[in-house]
Amino acid sequence: MEGVVDHEMRDVLTRVGGYDRCVTEFVRVTDQLLPERVFIRFAPELEQGGRTSAGTPVYLQLLGSDPKIMAMNAVQAQNLSPLGIDLNFGCPSKTVNRSDGGSALLREPERVYNIVAAVRDAVDPSIPVTAKIRLGFSNHDALDEITDNVFRANADELCIHARTREDRYTPPAYWSAVKKVSAKAPIPVIINGEIWNIADAKKAQLDSGCEDIMLGRSALTSPDIAAKIKSELTGGDYTAMSWWSALEMMVAYLQSSKNQHPMFVSNRCKQWLVFLQRHYPDAKVLFQQIKRMKAADEVFAEIKQYQHEARI
Predict the structure, then answer these.
(1) 209: pLDDT confidence band, cut at 50, 70 and 90?
(2) Which of 190, 213, 234 marks a domain boundary?
(3) Which residue among the candidates 22, 91, 210, 269 is catalytic per the annotation?
(4) Residue 11: pLDDT band with limits 50, 70, 90
(5) Which of 115, 118, 156, 212 would bridge with 71, disulfide CB 3.0–4.6 Å?
């Protein structure tokens, strides 16, 4: 969720409830030791005990390919007392993969072991070290070897996005392919991918054998999806968020963001409205009204006018 689930987004989503944990956008580790300010930029929550304002724990995610440098940066991050460190082996971006990061490493399972083991050995045992992978790079053939290496490296948890790198985000997600992993895993395994609603969550759990799920893009289509799923699974009584509440949340997020890029408000607003259209048909109307706007003032004025006219 690079470029999407930033600090402010984590803040507004966790205020709705339902989330047990968040993971930051990935911090790219190349060939040098990053200063602490870089980790704080990606995870301002580190300055408030590693939690969002709603109290939800946030793990710091690192992405890199050199075990020694990854371990050095994990130790540097440790000085800021993160509640956990997550290692990204799942990013399908061509740019990231060409620079030997993310899911490119799934072609070499031993390297996955070396990175996880180096980070796990380097940081204090009290700090969880978790890993995020896909089913493989172009097929599932190495899944057993990859996951066994993660277990052997003493990771605390494993999250599996149930598609290969070459599948990218094309439906479906192959939840059932994870069942053989969860059945033998000595650590918790979390299922991820193509979970858009309560029915998907239940089927993903059943097919994968995983108790826990990780949400991604669906959190932007339905901001209260975690609360709805948790309520359903625990027998609670939850009233779903209305379109108007979702819109107010989006406006609050845009207004609170510290991103100074002049196009941020218009670009992020359009991006979020595209996601929201999947769950709220009314989002399409508003998107059509602002899709050619660039200035933040224009966008906010149009949204305010839309809210006023729709509620007369």
Answers:
(1) very high
(2) 234
(3) 91
(4) very high
(5) 118
Are 180 and 299 in the same domain?
A: no
Domain co-membership, 254 together with 191: no
Residues 48 and 171 in one domain: yes
Q: Are residues 141 and 18 in the same domain?
A: yes
Q: Which of 190, 211, 234 is the C-terminal boundary of a domain?
A: 234
For the question of residue 269 being annotated catalytic, the response is no
Over the stretch 40-91, which tens digit does the pLDDT of each residue have?
999 999 999 999 999 999 999 999 999 999 999 999 999 999 999 999 999 9
CA distance 194 to 249: 24
Tens of pLDDT, residue by residue over 243-268, are 999 999 999 999 988 777 888 999 99
pTM above 0.90, yes or no: yes
Q: Which domain holds residue 118?
A: 7-234
| Total domains in the fold of the chain | 2
Q: In sequence order, what are the residues at sequence separation of 6 or more whose Cβ sits closer than 8 angstroms to the Cβ of residue 279?
A: 221, 222
